[in-house]
């Protein structure tokens, strides 16, 4: 084949914050096992209140000198991202009451599809064809990984709203993260979710003190690692990473969730589930690998 028609593949480059974000998805996948047992005996609203309020306090203590320089952009952007994040958790929790966990996992994963769609609707940023193909592959992969039968009911619509909220959270961060202090921006997000979770728990009369050692352990792990550190990493990563790429990286969460479920909870993946995990990884590669002829491609 002549040099003029040969296709040269550009090496897939990944920056350190994207690597850290992949590690974060692994942590979130691991917490599925820990949190699942905790919320069986403890209200979800109170769990979210404790988790995110504690995370915000810890981050405030670590960043106390710089919090006084909080800017208007960081405050408004952090509140907006925090509201979207809280909405995602609230819709997901409400939907789980009337749908199956498999349905909820698949539909929540559709955030990867909604991200380029909302980006186009809100910001008129047209997704590249490879982003579309990658999103479709990721959606199919998530379906094969998580579905064990799909029945349409009210809960599905609520979890669909959850996926849209998580996609909106990604897009808001992509707009406000560049030029913002990641620590201050993360603090405002966590404080917003903690405040709204407390209002929810108080309104539902579900605020109580944990009585189980397992609940305390789950709160400690999720507050320190899966919230304070994790959302700091996501905020920092989104300052240099396109939102569609972030969305695809986040689809690794159910992959890690399945792995830790296998190791820690005795879950077993079928061949179809394993094919789904492979498709998710393929979606990332399809989206990010570009030929030398793709002149002018964006992200």
Automatic annotation (TrEMBL):
**Quick check: keyword NAD in the entry?**
no
Q: Where is it localised?
A: Cell membrane
Tell me where the transmembrane regions lie. 12-33, 39-63, 75-92, 104-125, 132-150, 156-173, 185-203, 215-234, 246-265, 271-287
Instruction: Tell me what this protein is called.
Output: DMT family transporter
Membrane topology label: Multi-pass membrane protein
Known InterPro entries for this protein? Diverse_Substrate_Transporter, EamA_dom, EmrE-like
Alphabetical list of Pfam families matching this protein: EamA (PF00892)
What PANTHER family does this protein map onto?
A: EAMA DOMAIN-CONTAINING PROTEIN, OS03G0707200 PROTEIN-RELATED
> Transmembrane helix among the record's keywords?
yes
Q: Which organism does this sequence originate in?
A: Pendulispora brunnea
Q: Which residues form the EamA domain?
A: 17-146, 154-287
- What are the record keywords, sorted? Cell membrane, Membrane, Transmembrane, Transmembrane helix
